[in-house]
Design brief:
The complex is a heterodimer of chains A (about 110) and B (about 120).
Chain A lengths: L3 E4 L2 E4 L5 E7 L7 E6 L6 E5 L3 E2 L7 E6 L2 E6 L9 E6 L6 E2 L3 E5 L1
Parallel strand pairs in A: 2-11
Antiparallel strand pairs in A: 1-3, 3-8, 4-5, 4-9, 5-6, 7-8, 9-10, 9-11
Chain B lengths: L2 E5 L2 E3 L5 E8 L6 E8 L5 E7 L8 E3 L7 E6 L4 E6 L8 E9 L8 E2 L3 E5 L2
Parallel strand pairs in B: 2-11
Antiparallel strand pairs in B: 1-3, 3-8, 4-5, 4-9, 5-6, 7-8, 9-10, 9-11
Classes of the chains: A mainly beta (about 110), B mainly beta (about 120).
Chain lengths: ~110, ~120
Amino acid sequence: DIQMTQSPSTLSASVGDRVIITCRASQTISNYLAWYQQKPGKAPDLLIYDASRLESGVPSRFSGSESGTEFTLTISSLQPDDFATYYCQQYNSYPYTFGQGTKLDIK
Amino acid sequence: EVRLVESGGGLVKPGGSLRLSCAASGFTLGSYNMNWVRQAPGKGLEWVSSITISIGSPYTYYADSVKGRFTISRDDASGSLHLQMDNLRAGDTAIYYCARSIAVRPLPLDYWGQGTLVTVSS
């Protein structure tokens, strides 16, 4: 099974900050990597797929990149609505696997 | 409007069974692979099972933690997805989400339902 190692597990930041969340795959997954945002009591929302493609309707302050088996989610300028938990997920092969999550909270 | 609505959750004793359903509307179910993902209280997301589109017989996939106990199925004519859960354990306690992924090529879970809570406890 492909392991997804996500870091950090928690991140404290302020409105306007630039934040980066990292996800590393235990083996090659091509670019089949997605990022989701989840708010308390809600289902996850897809933000980015194919490592760097922005899902329709997602603000452009979100971006994704890849370098080999390392993937990053960048939020260029944090907005109040962005404080949530973020997950990466590989969909290259079954079993699909998620990262452990990054809780982004207000500093 | 795309909608996925889960139902069938509840309280069940260890060793018991439940059948979850997911009603799909606003899109052609037959064009999508369908998935179940769960989230234990206060924990992260865990993929549970997937079923491919029904060209011939669909393929099914399961997490090791549920293999042999859970069965995924779909009924495209009625627009529904199901998860039969047998021999339930306390560790199966979670919110269960259904989610779709288009079947053209590997693609992520782009729409999710709001989930149904399964509690396994004596």
